[in-house]
């Protein structure tokens, strides 16, 4: 049984692409066959984050328009054996793909891969509708900022309306010090509003930026806290019950309401 | 509970002629039950009362000609008595609205309010002003709002 998961947020720049790349790499590192679909058509950056830009010949619209076969457009990752990327088109506009085509595409990918992970564009327009069309599950990424949480809430409402219920939440770029000083929303505040299950919390970590700029993923970095956070998220996606890690000595993660796996 | 309301099947007491007047009035009231959290961008406009079993999040909006009752946290925008009914009330387990309107009164929480309420509260017009009080289910039963 394969899973088709969309990674979405509403607000841009909160870490959807980073999350998609790290979950994909993390699952592949555990021996799973994974394909990442860049549905951010027109912008395209999943390939850059993975360091695969120079390998692109065909893209998602070439597949949907029948210019090439699906197999031809898939790019094999250079580090992880089972990891593949279906790149977005950079030049064409967002209406180049429609929800029906996305559904069909996801179905075809699910026949070959254990995990199909879709990187959603920001916003709630056509690009968003395309990205969620073929998904069975959703991961919502937010940062601990009021505007990001508000957009996440809007997106959760839209996902529910599209029958994608119980999305799982990832809170990215948390800074324990700022939360402690009341300068940033805390995990509990966010869960209190969004009322969805928490899949993981990823700390602010400059290693994310450093690895991204090198076209690498931080998930394989044994020493980094963000890498550990992504590895935990990956295990939860697989259905394991992994306790939340303590980002902070004051133990503010201790009173969480729910900890879940995706299965 | 002294009175009992039944809709079906019709039983002898239900016949209109024998039904007490106050029950008649209750049955005429229009109320919807919303059994989920209203999220940012979601709006309900209703001619009658609205009861939400869930939260009303920031960015969500309820406009009702009657009362608005939220069995959860009310953080969005609400307008009760929207057609001008000054008797309308807003009741919530946690009353922390972005903006609260009753009839043609418009209010918002003070800018320096940091902590939210700990108990259910009710907002209604008293002496031509929107007042917020702790909701006490024990006093004057039968005439809560
Ligand atoms: N946990 C983190 N710590 C530090 N920087 C991060 C973290 N997560 C994401 N970033 C950075 O934030 C920026 C936006 O991330 P990205 O994944 O592209 O967001 P989105 O796809 O939602 O627009 C990138 O520069 C990325 O390196
Ligand atoms: Mg992105």
Query: Strand fraction band of chain B?
Result: 35-45%
Biggest β-sheet of chain A, characterized? 8 strands, mixed
List the chains of the largest interface with their residue counts: A-B, 11 and 13 residues
The third-level CATH topology of one domain in chain B is Pectate Lyase C-like
CATH architecture of one domain in chain B, please? Answer: 3 Solenoid
Weakly predicted, low-confidence segments of chain A: 248-260
Count of helical stretches of chain B: 1
- Structural class assignment of chain B: mainly beta
Give the mean pLDDT of chain B: 84
Share of β-strand residues of chain A: 15-25%
The neighbouring-strand order within the major sheet of chain B is 1-3-5-7-10-11
Q: Gyration radius of chain B, to the nearest Å?
A: 17 Å
Radius of gyration of chain A: 17 Å
CATH class wording of one domain in chain B: Mainly Beta
- Strand tally of chain A, please? 8
Order of helices and strands of chain B: HEEEEEEEEEEE
Q: Main attributes?
A:
heterodimer; A: 263 residues; alpha/beta; Rossmann fold; 8-stranded mixed beta sheet; 11 helices; 8 strands; globular; B: 145 residues; mainly beta; Pectate Lyase C-like; 5-stranded mixed beta sheet; 1 helix; 37% strand; binds adenosine-5'-diphosphate; binds magnesium ion
Can you put this structure into words, describing what you see?
Chain A has a single domain, classed as Rossmann fold (3-Layer(aba) Sandwich), CATH 3.40.50. Chain A is α/β, with parallel strands linked by helices and 263 residues long. Chain A contains 11 helices and 8 strands. Chain A is globular. With 145 residues, chain B is mainly beta. Chain B has a domain at 31-109 and 117-134: Pectate Lyase C-like (3 Solenoid). Helix content of chain B is 6%, strand content 37%. Chain B has one helix at residues 21-28, and strands spanning 31-34, 43-46, 49-52, 61-64, 68-74, 77-80, 89-95, 99-102, 105-107, 121-126, 129-134. In chain B, strands 1-3-5-7-10-11 form a 6-stranded mixed sheet, with no helix packed on it. A 5-stranded mixed sheet of chain B has the order 2-4-6-8-9, with no helix packed on it. In chain B, a hairpin with a 2-residue loop joins strand 10 and strand 11 (129-134). Chain B is globular. Chain B starts with 20 loop residues before the first helix and ends in an 11-residue tail after the last strand. Classes of the chains: A alpha/beta (263), B mainly beta (145). At the A-B interface, helix 7 of A face loops of B. Bound molecules: adenosine-5'-diphosphate and magnesium ion. Adenosine-5'-diphosphate binds at residues 9, 12-18, 122, 172-173, 202, 204-205, 208-209, 212, 226 of chain A.
